[in-house]
Design brief:
Oligomer: single chain
Shape: elongated
Structural class: alpha/beta
Number of strands: 4
Largest sheet: 4 strands, mixed
Order of helices and strands: HEEEHEHHHHHHHHHH
Radius of gyration: 28 Å
Number of domains: 2
Distance between the termini: 68 Å
């Protein structure tokens, strides 16, 4: 209503398109208060096959007007019309060229993931297959968006990366390290009687190091971050969907994938390996404390055995997995965020799905690489 009132006030300066000698002349104010979608209907009435778009006479434009110019060119191309040239004022031409890569493609990056929830009854299996294929496609869009940050004049959105590092890393280090410390204590305590029975007390160090560094610590750390940060990513993007902030990003020619998803994944790339490393240290410390009174292994002997008998590959395998888990958490959290519908209940549903999907994929990838490393002889 507000837009209509303003448009009525400026009707004499509203956006216009006229055709003369194979030239579409754009004139008036091409702004959100002065333009109407019906203006593009002229494309359906064109008989000419070659068109020149002349926007020199445009008095004023903004992102909405630029969007309609891009849309006009897209519609002409869709009608098999050949555009000979798009003539604009110098400042408008710079605006046009700088937004052509995003103005009409931003929505395609996420709108196809807005599927209805058909996960009830007989449709569970088909829905699961659909989600897997959509995640694969989303993975492709994410890879393209990640590669685009190396383009000239590309924005990296350091502030959003810093927010992810702060929320996932600084605020998550205590809970991940504490939990892995307790797991180290628990595993040593549970296995101590078994090793004592066979007089193999010292081998508890080998068992603990391989189990924790290679498998348990990366897995537990990733699951915790999936529950904390992955769900937060889904809720954040979902809230923006409900409040139509993502539509506003499109209108401004900003790619939602690059603005919202890439910084989250990059932040997790930085944080999760560090959290895994700190959790490794905490778990070994917990096992070392427990091994003394239970098995008679003093700290110096524990450290010596750890250095001499356990390959450093166990540590690096866990760190390698943490990079994969970081990608999964960021990708799945963002994917579920884009699936949020225009109601608040959908945010809770998709947040739950985000955590479930992330944990399932993390465990699946962990199992796949366990088999792969065995086949490749990486121990």
């Amino acid at each position: 209503m507000y837009k209509k009132v303003l448009a009525d006030k400026n009707q004499t300066n509203s956006a216009k398109i006229s055709l003369k000698q194979n030239t579409l002349t754009l004139s008036g104010n091409w702004t959100w208060t002065s333009i109407d979608e019906s203006i593009l209907s002229i494309v359906d009435r064109l008989a000419e096959n070659t068109i020149t778009v002349d926007g020199i006479a445009i008095s004023q434009t903004d992102t909405t007007g630029m969007y309609f110019i891009h849309k006009l060119c897209q519609n002409l191309t869709g009608k098999n019309k050949k555009i000979l040239a798009v003539n604009l004022k110098h400042e408008d031409e710079l605006f046009f060229n700088s937004t052509k890569d995003y103005m009409l493609t931003a929505k395609s990056e996420y709108s196809k993931y807005e599927q209805e929830d058909n996960s009830s009854g007989d449709g569970v299996f088909s829905t699961l297959i659909q989600v897997i294929f959509q995640l694969i496609e989303f993975f492709g869009y994410l890879c393209y968006a990640m590669a685009s940050i190396f383009k000239k004049n590309s924005s990296l959105y350091v502030d959003r990366i810093a927010d992810t590092v702060r929320s996932a890393g600084i605020r998550g280090v205590l809970i991940t390290s504490t939990l892995c410390f307790l797991l180290g204590v628990n595993l040593t305590y549970q296995m101590a009687p078994q090793f004592t029975t066979y007089g193999a007390n010292i081998y508890v160090v080998n068992f603990l190091a391989i189990a924790m560094l290679r498998e348990v610590t990366p897995l537990i750390t990733a699951i915790i971050i999936a529950g904390r940060t992955g769900s937060a990513i889904t809720a954040s993007i979902g809230t923006m969907k409900v409040q139509e902030e993502i539509d506003a990003l499109q209108t401004m020619g900003i790619s939602p994938m690059r603005r919202l998803v890439v910084p989250q994944v990059l932040g997790l790339f930085m944080v999760l390996p560090i959290l895994t490393m700190l959790a490794d240290i905490a778990s070994m410390f917990g096992g070392m404390i427990c091994a003394g009174p239970l098995l008679g292994i003093d700290p110096l002997l524990f450290i010596h055995r750890l250095q001499s008998s356990v390959s450093i590959n166990q540590f690096w395998i866990g760190i390698f997995k943490s990079f994969l888990f970081a990608w999964i958490i960021g990708m799945v959290g963002s994917y579920c965020g884009f699936q949020v519908k225009s109601n608040s209940d959908s945010i809770g549903v998709q947040t739950t799905k985000s955590v479930v999907y992330s944990i399932c994929l993390i465990v699946l990838i962990d199992a796949v690489f366990a088999i792969l490393f065995k086949l490749l002889g990486i121990n």
